[in-house]
Amino acid sequence: MENNAKVLLKWARDLLKSNGVEDVTFESRVLLAHSMGISVEVTFLIDDPITQEIANDYQSMVYRRAKGEPTAYIIGYKEFFGEIFKVDPRVLIPRPETELLVEKTAKYLNDQSIEKQEVMKIVDVGTGSGCIAISLAKLFPSIKLMATDISAESLELAKSNAQNHSVIDQLEFYENDLLTNLEGPFDIVVSNPPYIDSNSIKAVQREIRNHEPIIALDGGLSGTETLSRLIIQAKERLSDDGLLVIEIGFGQKEDVLFLCKKIFSSNSEVKLEIDLAGIPRVLLVKNNE
Ligand code: GLN
Known about the structure:
- The chain is an alpha/beta fold.
- It has helices spanning 5-18, 24-36, 52-66, 71-75, 99-110, 114-119, 131-139, 152-164, 206-209, 225-237, 253-263, and strands at residues 77-80, 83-86, 122-125, 145-149, 171-175, 186-191, 238-247, 269-274, 280-286.
- The protein has two domains: 5-67, Orthogonal Bundle (Helicase, Ruva Protein, domain 3), CATH 1.10.8; 88-286, Vaccinia Virus protein VP39 (Rossmann fold, 3-Layer(aba) Sandwich), CATH 3.40.50.150.
- The strands form two sheets. The protein has a seven-stranded mixed β-sheet, sandwiched between helices.
- Residues 95, 192-196, 208, 217, 247 line the site of glutamine.
């Protein structure tokens, strides 16, 4: 095969398409950009022939993608909230809808004085790559956060991301099942817990099912088991005016609202925020004891 960008990209698009990849135009360019060490935009400007070494490298990445491996694991990073996070199969790949958690938490923090921010006790539960905690730490240099995860190996990656983003001094990491063993009161509990029901995992895309850590996805038989456990634990540990910000899955709105109405005082504010696809995605509870 002739090693020019046009020919290689066409070959990649065809291969990816016939293997069920959705956004072949973009993904073929992301992989080419990565193999050449350039940005995706610059791939539109390549005139010179591509070296055999780069072509081989590119082709082996395209084959991996064709077999179902997610692009983020192949290139080793994912963009989230405008920043780059290292990812590998130890952690869930950050999703765009999770940016809504950061946005809502940031909005709340913005309304607090710097003095208050400095003393707030904030925890990111099930931190994974660390993308939520690290994004918040970067936005608010005066805050400190705790980041927990049941997976020791995900904490290693989260720490490395925190180091790369120079916020390691703002974070404390705990290997922990949700909030068990952690003492409140917390001013903010933020989390993207696993919420796919165990039976549906078989039916999700192969990219997710075969490559991402099941422990980060499986929310038990009902899908809301971990969510409910977390909401109950958070209620026990939230400060009287604390904030709970949790990502939920499609169709889980009624269950979480029912639980929140049952356990939080009637003065508390319970809200759901809609994601870009119009799906209720973020549960916000402002405790009011
Ligand atoms: N949003 C992810 C997905 O649909 C699931 C993440 C999670 O369970 N927290 O694949």
